[in-house]
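new request in #modeling-help
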Amino acid sequence: MSNHTHKPKYSTDLLTFLMLMALTALTIWASFATGGTTVLAVSVAMAIATTKAFLVIRNFMHVKYDHVIYKIFIGLVSLLFLSFILILALDYAYR
Amino acid sequence: MSETVAYTVEKNFFEEKRGLFSWIFTLDHKRVALLYLYAIITFFLVGMSLGFLMRLELFSPGGQIVDPKTYNQMFTFHGVIMIFLVIIPSIPAVFGNFFLPIMLGTDDVAFPKLNLFSWWLYVIGALMALSTLMFGKGPADTGWTFYAPYSVTSDTNVSMLLLAAFVLGFSSILTGLNFIVTIHRLRAPEMTWFKMPLFSWGLYATAWIQLLATPIVGITLLMVVVERAFGIGLFDPSLGGDPILYQHLFWIYSHPVVYVMILPAMGIISEIIPTSAQRVIFGYKAIAISSMAIAFLGYFVWGHHMFTSGMSGEARIVFSFITFLVAIPTAIKVFNWVATMYKGSIHVTPNLLWSTAFIFNFLIGGLTGLINGALAADVHVHDTTYIVAHFHYTMFGGTIFVFFGALHYWFPKMWGRMYHVKTANIALALTFIGFNVTYGAMLTVGMKGMPRRYYDYLPEFEFLNKISTVGSWIMVIGLLLMITNLIISRRNGKKAPRNPWNGVTLEWQVPSPPPLHNFDHKPILSPNGPYDFSILEQINAFEDKPKE
C-alpha cells in the first residue's frame, strides 16, 4: 500500500507466527484444563481466538502500518459484531 | 449562451467489440451492467409469472389450478427468485455498475475482473437455483426464509437451493467490495465526499451492508445444509438444536438486506427529482447522512421479524424501539424529496411519474411497517397477507418501481435512443393501478385475518381475493406493455442527445451511449456540489460531431 509509513520487518512476522503457534498450543491445553465443553472452556477458547485474530489483522494484514481510516473501519465492524452477540445474549439470558 | 464545443463521436461501448465472447468475458462496467440487466429482467418475468399463477389459484376458495404442495413450491420459488435473483442485485448490479464510475468521473470500477467474476457467480447461482426444478422432489417448499426445523426435514431440494443462495451471496459481497473501493479510491480529484451524487451515497451505504451482513446468512445457510447432510443438531430441537437461533442468524442478514434493496433506490430518487424539478436537492447532507444512518440502524432491528417466535420480552422491547428509530432517517428523505419538488420547475417525465408513484407506495409500505414494528399490533397481523402486502409495498412498490423509473431515466444514456413517452405513461398508470388494487386488497384481507402462505381460505375472504387477482391482471398488462415499449424503442426510438432531461451530474456530460472509457472530455464539476444547475448551459454546450 502506498500509505505505508514503515516497512514491515520479517522479524515481526516471525515473532507473530511464533505467538500464534504458542496461542494454539495454549488453546489445546486450556480445553483440557477447563473441562472441554463448559462455559469457562468456551470463554477461554474465544478469548484466545480473539487475541490471535487481533495479531493476524494487526501484523499479517499490515493494518498496523496502514492509514488510520482502516483502523476506524475495523473498529466499527468489531463493535457491530460485538453488538450482535450482546443482543443475541439478551434474548438467551431472559427467554 | 456559452460557446458550443463539438466532439467527434468515438465508437460507443456497443460498437467497440462484437460477438458473444466480447460480452460474456467483458471487463467494461457498462457491459457487465447490461449482462445483469438482461438476466434480471428474465428472472423478473419468471417470478412475475409465478406470482400471477399464485393469484389465479387464490381467485376462489378451494383448489383451482395446482395442488397444495405445488402452491408451496411456487411461493418459495417466487420468493427466492425475486429476492436473490432480482431485487438484491437489481439496482446496484445494473445501475450501480453502469453509472457509479461515470458519476464519479472515472473509466471503470476498481476491480473490473472481480466485477465480471461476480456476474459469473450470479449466473452459476441462478443455474443452481433453476436446477432444483429438474431433479428429486422438486424445488423447496419451505418459503424463501428456509425456517428451521422444517427446512431441515423437508424432502424437497432445499440443500441445492440453499447452496444457490450461498453462491449468490458471494456475488453480492464482491459487488459491494468493488463499489466501496471504487468510491474511496477512484473519485475525480475535485470530488470530495459531499460532492458525490446521492446515488453514490446510496450505493456506498448499501455496499457496507452487502459486505458485512451477507457472510452471516451465507454461513447460516451452510449450517442448515450441514444439519440436513450430517444430522448435526444446530437448529432442529429434536437433535438438540435451537430453531430461534436460526431465525436470529437469518434475520441478522435478511433485515439489513431490505436496506440493500431500498437504499440504492432512494439514491436514484434523489437523482431523478432534482433533474425533474431543475433545482438543487433540498438537504443534500441530510439525505447522504440518513443513508448511512439507515444502513447502521438497519443492523439492529432484525428481531422485529420474530416478535411471535418465542423470543424474550426484553429483547422484543429493544427491537421494537430501534425499529421506530429507523423511521426517522427514512422520513427525512421523503420530506426532502417533496421539499425539492416544491416550487420547482417540474418537467413531468415518465421517470418522475415512476418516482412519485414510488413515494406514494413507499409511504404506505413505511407506515404499515410501523404497525408491524409495534409489539401488540404485530401479534394481530403476524403471518397474515397484511405482511405480504406490506413487504410488496416496500420492495415492489418501492425498489422495483424505482428500478423501472431508473430504466426510463437512463434509457437514453444507456442505449442512445428515446422511448415512446405516451406508451410509457400508460404502462405506468396500469402498473400503478394494478399494483395498488392487488396489494391494497391483500392488506385489507390480511387485517381481517387471512393467513399468508395458505393454499385455501374461508369464504368470507373471497371478495377481496377476487379483487386482488383482478388487480394482478391489470398490473401484468402494464408491466408487459412497459417492457415491450422499451424493447421496441431500443431499436426504433429517436436518437437520444447527450442530455435529454437537462441533468447536471456527470453521466449527462458523456455521449449517449458512452464510449468505452466513458469521457471524451474533462468532466465539469461545480464547486457548489453535484446538483448545481447554474452549470447546465456549460454541460449542454457539448455537442456530438458526426464521424467523418
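bot summary: The first strand of chain B starts at residue 5 and ends at 8.
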